[in-house]
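quick one
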Amino acid sequence: MNFETIDTTVKALWRFDYDTNIKPLRDLYEVAKKEQWNAATDIPWEMKTDPAEVGDMTSSGGEPFDFVKALPKEKQIELAQRKSAHLLSNFLHGEQGAMMICGQLVEVVPDMDGKLYASTQVIDEARHVEVFNRYIKRLDHVYPILPGLKALLNAVLQADLWQMKCVGMQIIAESIAMGSFKTMMKITNDEVFRRVVELTSQDEARHVSYGLIYMKDEIPKMNEPDRNRLEDFAWTAMTLLATTPQLREDGQGDPMDEVYKDLGIDPKKVESEMISRFSDPEFVKAQPNPFRDYAYPQLQRVGLITDRTQAKYEQAGLVS
Ligand SMILES: [Fe+2]
Ligand SMILES: [Fe+2]
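structure w/ fe (ii) ion:
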């Protein structure tokens, strides 16, 4: 058995007026019902995955690193496959987090249309758990969750304001997922995975819409202390994944180190090449950054980037 628990608090809210009160959310609920798909039958699982077509989904598709170029072709393919499995494992854990957070949203959001819609997202995220788990097994095994991702999901699960859950999940985490899917689609030529991403992104786009529609309306109605707390929560959520050291919790270092070692690559060489590439601001700018490119503009749209917080985003290079 492999599990852990955290304590969360949600204030469940009953509504006794069942008619539509937020029409765009009711419309989104209708779309969600129509766009349901079946992870077991709508993905061409009968097709084989050619390892050479998977690609390194963690890369931006630019010039490969020297330590990669030094490997024979078949080891390059294996490395790409295992790095992709590591990335997708974190998507898988993220999907489980999303499923649990949406379960909370059904309880905590104050509007019937908000509850109805959130209930459809629970099954969407269940489907995503199912597809990612199934696909990863074609590549490698499921890797442990990155501490930064776990910190982000736990912060949302434990947030006390429902608006924090909505912003943390629907706006920040969902936008990051959308951005990462776009990059993966540029990299991979595996038809099975392309279908997984096509169907999953269709759902995630709806999830972002929910956050935007709901929060655009809600944030201006909040009192100042709560709005300030929400702005600060958004900032913290945006930085948790990027600033928490991504080392394994058991003190065994970078989870990718064992993959490098298996393939005869010295992890220290990888680290020093990474440090030198990422110390070049032009290289960093050219890398896709879903926080900067996707989440930040959405936070701006709902009015969460303000005079209080903007400078912090600028300093962190998160302004698109
Ligand atoms: Fe999802
Ligand atoms: Fe989602």
